[in-house]
Amino acid sequence: MNIASKLWLAAATxxxxxxxxxxxxxxxxxxxxxxxxxxxxGWFVNFIFMSLPGTNFPWIVMxxxxxxxxxxxxxxxxxxxFFKHAIQLVKGDYSDPNDAGEVSHFQALATALSxxxxxxxxxxxxxxxxxxxxxxxxxxxxxxxxxxxxxxTECTLGVKYRNEYPDGTVSGGPMYYIxxxxxxLGLPGGKFLAVLFSVFCILGALGGGNMFQANQAxxxxxxxxxxxxxxxxTGFIFAGIVFAVIVGGIKSIANVTEKIVPIMGILxxxxxxxxxxxxxxxxxxAFGQIFQGAFTGLGVAGGxxxxxxxxxxxxxxxxEAGVGSAAIAHSAVKTKEPITEGFVSLLEPLIDTVVICTMxxxxxxxxxxxxxxxxxxNYMLNEAGTAIATVDGNTGVSxxxxxxxxxxxxxxxxxxxxxxxxxxxxxxxxSYYGLKAWTYLFGEGKGSELTFKIIFCVFIVIGxxxxxxxxxxxxxxxxxxxxxxxIFCLYFLMKLVRTELAxxxxxxxxxxxxxxxx
Length: 518
Known about the structure:
The protein is 75% helix and 1% strand. It is mostly helical. Strands 1-2 form a two-stranded antiparallel sheet. A hairpin with a 5-residue loop joins strand 1 and strand 2 (170-171). Helix 3 packs parallel to helix 21 (468-510) and helix 10 packs across helix 21 (468-510). The two termini are 37 Å apart.
């Protein structure tokens, strides 16, 4: 157990031992925070997830999937054609140490991954499988493969139109490529759309970037310690640790994420692999459930369409392809070729959704936490009829924890450490995304940056104290709202990316693009 975990346990134990009345008052305060939060964000959530007329398919999910499909075909399946070259770039084979920028290709990838490989991979997958059944996993994988093209498009533009300052720092992301790109093409409205994206990005940073992470981390810690305590305690400790890292800027964040991301990836995937190896005889059955459920629904809520919606929705929240957030981190890379960072970024949805999300789903299915009706072979619904019934009524991160625990009893403790690392890494990356949107609106400067960082940490505390429902709804809505603006603008700007791609591909093939010896 790491130092942060010990601090949580010590603080929680002290708080609980102090007085039952104090604990009751804290719980009451948590409920008040939750009620205020839910009442103030409901309208926003309802609009973003409004269904297409005559269906229960959210228009925003269709918006993301259609865009990813268009980019995949427009760039000739770039995610597969340049996959090997993307690996070479991450290794540093083509990195010129004299190029402008602040971080390496690997650091940029690690920072962006730390923003996407978070609790969406643990709790989000459990939500998708719990509602849409195992079949939701198939649609998650498909959305992840298509999303690689969306990520490629936005991250190429992020580097192409970034601002480079005399002190060596850079600022980039959708707000810059929207305003500059539209101006270059002679299109109106670029500045307005850039401002609108920045507003949504700040909301996304405060919602999905930290509130959801703090909320689910607190839930997992409570599961492990075996008693309830105020989310404010978790929130304050998380906020203090996060602030200590983000106060140093992108270089400090990159230095932390390049160490944390490989550790947490190996820890989580390794734990899942052990469970799968122990239950190797059930892997074929689990994949059968996934493929059968993808097209039949296996009798779950919403059937086939329910599985498809949950799979696409969770994939979008997990890998953020088309949202534009990763373009902010990748803009800081050291390179003079914008397209190279597009290649590197397309690896993110593969790692995040196709690998890690699938591992989570397989563990949940194999653990048989989802209750099957022995008479029909279909999954049974809960009393409300809104999700699949589980062995102990678990949902979200608690369902994933129970699934790991069913494999090996002490694995929930490993999961608790992974949850803390995932939550922490996601927060520090999203603080940078939100910060760049903030400085785009209010100007660069130490005072402006410090103001946002303090606001960000306050929302960590609020997120830990609010309940899952309002937090996850607001998190999804805020992040998907970024995609509304970003994808609309990408349709106008994607021809600029194709020009970059054609030029680079020709120079790479001719040998003009050379490897560097380090």
